[in-house]
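Issue: copy button drops trailing tokens. Both records pasted manually instead:
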Amino acid sequence: MPYADSTGAILDEWRARFRLANHRERGQLLLELPPELPADEYRVAVRDAWQDSDRQPLAAEDWRRLFSAELPGRAEGLMKDEERKRLAGLPERVEVFRGVNAWNHFSGLSWTLDRERAEWFGARLVTDEGAGVTIAARVLRKRIIAVFDERGEDEVLVFPRYVRNRSYNQVRGES
């Protein structure tokens, strides 16, 4: 949808559309961000949409582009104060985990600091005949995009190319 001509009207229209959008529409609206959107608003919009990312139609490449935006303080602005402190307090080499099943991918952006949470994700939605996988790996703290704990998941965002030393363990589905 085209935006109005003046910068103020462009931003106002986008903000209104984003505010009123449902969870699935927010991801698409992120791809239509007006370049005039201030960096702090951009980061809040990306964070809010990511928090609903399990309901987003965006592809991994879309999220990579959104999280790679060259903005001053990009990563810091994505996190709340407590999350920034959590990231700063992590060791130089961080152990991360990812739960994988038939509904998600081995090389996603989302990892966790909590092995049990990863096992839960791996076992979620698995049939009696199938099993999920928990991946344990290492990443350098400086490669972490953000740490989110809004949903109690100790979520770590990191581009898959920086995740090293992966080991895989099968987990059974919930009965």
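Record 2 (pasted manually too):
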Amino acid sequence: MSEANKAASRRLYEEVFGHGNLEVADEILSPASVNHGPGTSPDVGTKFIKRQAALLRGAMPDFRVSLLDQVAEGDRVASRWNGSGTFTGRFVLPSGPLAPNGANVSFDEMRIDRYVEGRIVESWFIPDRLTVWQALGLLPAT
């Protein structure tokens, strides 16, 4: 079961984020899945993860994904993955659109997925937003 869950989490990164196959999220996540991210209220359903993947892929049309580490125990899979690409596309923030600057962007994210009957029902994730914001020119590089 742990290997099947690991494979499903891998598909989430590689197919949904890496290739933009957003409908695959509906196969992997429960329709009532709950996503917990830092500084935000929990999101329910697959809409959030599809929106995130589309946002990243729209901002970086050459977006690539690499799964760096993955461990599973019981009903949980912990993954560390990297996303990278060139900021040449459309990126819309709550404050408005951000003009592309051609920057190379590379960030890591750690995520824990909880499974029930082969589907993700709850996730906790911590993305490296600081690195992304610096690359996009929203914060000064240190």
